[in-house]
């Protein structure tokens, strides 16, 4: 089933200049960017995003980290995108992430694990609404087919 999911390239990914490489991995697997922005997150947005972790010992660290520098928020669309992106990202703890995953190839630290992705259809709906207004999420087909193949491309 075609789904949309929220992905963050966290401040460590942006600071390490890995944004393009990370986004390329998703595109190379056929996931389509339907929303994209660079954001320097304020505390209110950080608390909304990490609301489920409020009260946990690492909550303040999470908020401090995600507000420390800009991040890139992405809405990705594709077949089973929610689970697919989680598989591509690898285990939350980078030392347990399989080689070939984003964290397994590029990250070491739990607190600096490069990417966030929605973990369920419910969290995808909630998180997409936190990060993007409805009019910032675009739907489009393969317009390039029309340019390459002409009108018969449909
Ligand atoms: P993320 O996918 O952004 O969602 C919550 C984040 O909390 C997670 O990635 C980790 O970076 C972080 N996290 C989860 N568990 C712990 C923990 N036990 N200690 C520190 N950070 C954690």
SSE series: EHHEHHEHHEHH
How would the global form be characterised?
Answer: globular
- Proportion of strand residues: 15-25%
- Percent of residues in helices: 40-55%
Q: Taking all residues together, what is the mean pLDDT? A: 95
- Assembly of the depicted chains: single chain
- Give the CATH level 1 class: Alpha Beta
Taking the alpha carbons of the first and last residues, their distance comes to 22 Å
Low-pLDDT windows of residues: none
**Strand count, sense and closure of the main sheet?**
4 strands, antiparallel
Overview of the molecule:
- With 154 residues, this protein is an alpha+beta fold.
- The protein has helices at 11-15, 19-28, 43-49, 59-66, 81-89, 102-106, 121-131, 143-149; strands at residues 2-9, 32-39, 71-79, 115-117.
- It has one domain: Alpha-Beta Plaits, CATH 3.30.70.
- It is built from 8 helices and 4 strands.
- A 4-stranded antiparallel sheet has the order 2-3-1-4.
- The protein is globular and about 60 Å long.
- 29% of the residues are buried.
- The site of adenosine-3',5'-cyclic-monophosphate has 8 residues, from loops.
What's the layout of helices and strands?
Layout: E1 2-9, H1 11-15, H2 19-28, E2 32-39, H3 43-49, H4 59-66, E3 71-79, H5 81-89, H6 102-106, E4 115-117, H7 121-131, H8 143-149
Antiparallel strand pairs: 1-3, 1-4, 2-3
The structure holds adenosine-3',5'-cyclic-monophosphate (CMP).
Adenosine-3',5'-cyclic-monophosphate (CMP) binds next to loops.
